[in-house]
Amino acid sequence: MTAHAAPQATAGTGTAQESGPGRGVTPRDWWIIGLLLAFFTLNFADKAAIGLAAPDLEKDLGLTAGQYGLMSSAFFWLFAAGAVVLALFFRRIGWRWSAAALMIAWVASMAPLTVPTTVTVVIASRMVLGFFEGPAHALCQSVVADRFPSERRAFAGAIVNAGSSVGPLIATPLLTWIIVTWTWHAAFTVLVAVGALWAVVWLVVTRREPGMGPRESAAPVAEEPDPNGDIDVPLYVLLRTGSFWGLALLSFAGYLITSLKVSWLPSFLHDGMGYSRGTVGLLATLPYGCAIVVLLTAGWLSGRMLRAGRSARAARGFLTMAFLCFAGLAMIAFTRVPPGGLQLALVVAAFSINSVAFSVAFAGAADFLPRKHRPGFFGCIIAAYSVAGIIAPWLLGAIVDAADTVSQGYADGFLVVGITICVFAVAGGLLLDPGRSRAVLLAETARRRAAATEAAR
After folding, report:
1. Where does the source fall among the domains of life (predicted)?
2. Which of 200, 331, 382, 395 is 20 to 30 Å from 31 by CA-CA measure?
């Protein structure tokens, strides 16, 4: 659907159907959410595959830990550019074609990894994949914001974001088995095939969905009112609000966890904690499984707080801050205890909470963000937090290489990351205040209109 969420004529019928948060939630909305859940599931399965293949990659290509970390970070080198540049086209081509194009691009970028290859090809493949995965979250959150009212938006967003856990939860044991049984190339062959199938299903299911096609092909009908339509400021004004920086810092903290979970967690369980490859394939699913429960609980709790009369600042900012601080403290703690059950429990806790920043906190943006600025606003936040993906995998690898032992290197690296998560979470939680941002933006809108009126006299 378009970023304006306008009700549009159903292709082939000529009749308009309602679309947007003002018309209530229908079963059709949940079908779209289900497809986006599958979309995000594949999105994260693609990223997790490189971490699962790490031992084979290092052996086949002769990589050190630092070199592998650099290769992992290549995914994020163009991630920010894709998040900003491609998101700007969403309103023009519609959600239907945006999602299909992204999936086809993911499939094409992974195709070279289905056969024996070189370091240069792997890095190029990850760069291209990162560029086209950059806007995926902005696309999903914009669709959620268009289709769900405020009190249900966090829960719907949490379902979509659960794909970040469902993907690796399903893919980790399956892809590990494929890699151990055959090769890491076979794992990417499976991902390519499933991605191509999703693109076909999406195009078939959404062919009659109002607003999913190009805007110029739809019949002109009345536009759904924008709940933040009374805010009329340029994008750069939105980027100066405290809530923008709060969201950027919270999502940066969350993405520190995400990037290390997909790139280093399997290697840490194998090399740092001593588990076998087969056992790692099972243990690595634990944080993803727990993350689904955490995501849905956080989304439900945020909605319940709003319905109980709590402020958006508490339900979006403070709640996200509390979850991320718990993750950071758990990460600090697991570097201080010996290997065993307690350490494993702390590892699972630390790596289970990252996606709260991308559902509960992001839902707060829709409380003050005009619909026309959603793609650009979300794109800029994604560009900011993608820096965590560039730095964290490479830095952890460099610390491991520099340490006397692999175990000590992991302990030192995760200690630094845990402290950073807590600092960014507190700063972001204090800055995110949707209510205040809305008041500031309304005042700026009034000031600009008054200045324009005065200049016209």
Report:
1. Bacteria
2. 382
